[in-house]
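Notes from the pairing session

We agreed to fold both candidates in a single pass and log them together. This is the raw record for the first candidate, unedited. Please don't reformat it; downstream parsing expects exactly this layout.

Candidate A
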Amino acid sequence: MALPTIRGVLWSLPYLRNAITKRESSWDRTGGNRDYITVKPGDTATLAKIKGPGAIRHIWITISCPDKYYLRKILLRMYWDHENRPSVESPIGDFFGIGHGIAKHYISLPLTMTCDKGFNCYFPMPFFDYAEIEVVNECDTEVRAFYYHVDYELYDKLEDEVGLFHAKWRREKTVAQKTEVNLTGENNYLILYAEGRGHYIGCVLSVHGLRPGWWGEGDDMIFVDGEKWPPSLHGTGTEDYFCSAWGFNREYWGPYHGFPLWGKRSWLGYHTMYRFHLEEPVVFRKSIKVTIEHGHANDRADDISSVAYWYQTEPHIEFTTMPPPEERIPLPEKKSSEVLEEILQEFKKGEVEDYNRYFYYLYAVLEDELRLKEPVVSVLRFTWDLFAKLDKRQKKEVLVDLYTKAISILREQGK
């Protein structure tokens, strides 16, 4: 009987491999139990130097460091085949799947933060001649303990049609646009721009919501091989790109997509989501530009960061540069009362045009922070119906009064 032509994920396991399996790790060379390295501030530690051809198959790390933002201040870099510029460069926490300098349990197929502590990467990372992995401590303190495993294989030969693994972090405080439509994609948030031949395999996207209200109306737009508008791949909303629908109503994580970090229900605060194109990579022959709107037609001004993952032939271009550590740490989360106070000052200065939106902002914050019950929520919805019928001057007066009272209530509760 012939073997089936359709093979599952585990089907390759019975086939014997022509490879040598090896590991680089932080084990105690004295035979003791001090199975970690320390890294002083400003120092670079080399985790692995491997002569190929071969492929890294798994990386595991765990870190003990007193710096509050060590996950943003420690950089992870990887170099293939003696290149001068790293193919992987990212704050170490973001690379493993959660942004904002936060460690949080989740499990996907290629990346995990198991039990908040054990960070794993299963992306295959082939190299023809040489591989080097290093971490750079840009914290204000010593990394007291850095444990790691780098599991890899060595081969007699690597196939010519192999792309090299790349990952890059970037961050942008977006600027809200005032247009009603977006027919160019020019002001979208940029996740990746690459030149060469390869395929894009996904991203981790982290949003710090600086204003209440849903920031996820933005469409993903992926431009392939220098094409002009419209792009080959145009999505229908942020949560749609991350394989949810009608927003996110819970934290979740799965093999290919997830929303493992949900900030406040008013959409203020820190949020992280991921999408991996493991079954449907986006192929490019000359270049690729991966973007996503920040709000509908880019109408949101939030703090966004991302890690893009892709494979390509070398050389690669530097589409973004790594900022210094003080520019990588997350902005502090403000109390909801502080955010409403900022909006109130905008009212008083006459800087607000869309009063309906700011009524919704107030509604979202109150429902979230005060955990309002359905009867009270119903009253707010009824109030919205009345509010919508007011003229602009009346809306401003009502909003100033409502915001003032809401701020007072939230401050009393320390929120």
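Candidate B (folded immediately after A)
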Amino acid sequence: MEQYTDDERVEDLKKWWKDNGASILIGIALGVLAIFGWQYWRSYRDAQAEQASQAYEAFLAVAEKPNADLARQQGQAVLTDFPKSPYAALAALRLAKLAMDGGDAATAMQRLEWVIANARLDEIKDIARLRLARVHLTAGQLAAAGKLLDSVATGSLNAEREELRGDVYLAGNDPAKARTAYAAALAAGGSQGLLHLKIDNLAEPTADMLVIAAPVAPPPEAQPEPAPAEPAAVPAPTDAVPAASAESAAVPTPVEPAAVPAPTDTAPAPAKPAPQVESAPAESAVTEPAPVAPPASTSSGQ
């Protein structure tokens, strides 16, 4: 096998370049353009996302204020300027809430249907389906609400979905299915207090529940205890008249009649005759005895 000379190799290289050089140059140019184009697209996308974020934050700030018209204008600007942004779906959800608060159910349905059709995240779509089903339930459209609930597949929304399904069954006068749906919502981690209350309201009345208890009288108010009454003064007994002292026995003086006590509620006992006071012997008198006064009037027999 003969060896190639340098001239032959150069000729072969020139021939290969003539056949493939143009395509190589075009590929390199396209690669450079692709790199710069990707970088430009990324910078443009980031700039758009930043602008969409700022517009959405401005919309939320206005939505917190009572000026609903200005809030609707700001939200519509987000939808118009950034329709492919994730913030557009969030703005549409908030616009639907504003419409429901204003009593405009038709506009709320339109906003939620737009989210279902244009949102990129499945979770956002399922949130819109749940809210749209609630709007249909409020309007009495139970079949449409149930159909939307069947299409919700996000696992984190199972509790809310089953609770809303129970509300739909309850509105359709099917308490058995409503109870089953509420139990499923409890198993999925729903609100314990509210779901237990809904289940208790579905309990069938029993004989004990139908008995009407008599009204219980309120407890009597505590009355202040009366102060203990002071014991009434007991009149001095009048059964006997105290005997005269030794000095009065020595010198008898006129005896004044005893004071008659005031009449009381109880009849006083009959007074006994006062004992007759006898005069003392003469030896107990003083040196010059005073004239003895006649004794006071006593009972007959003296």
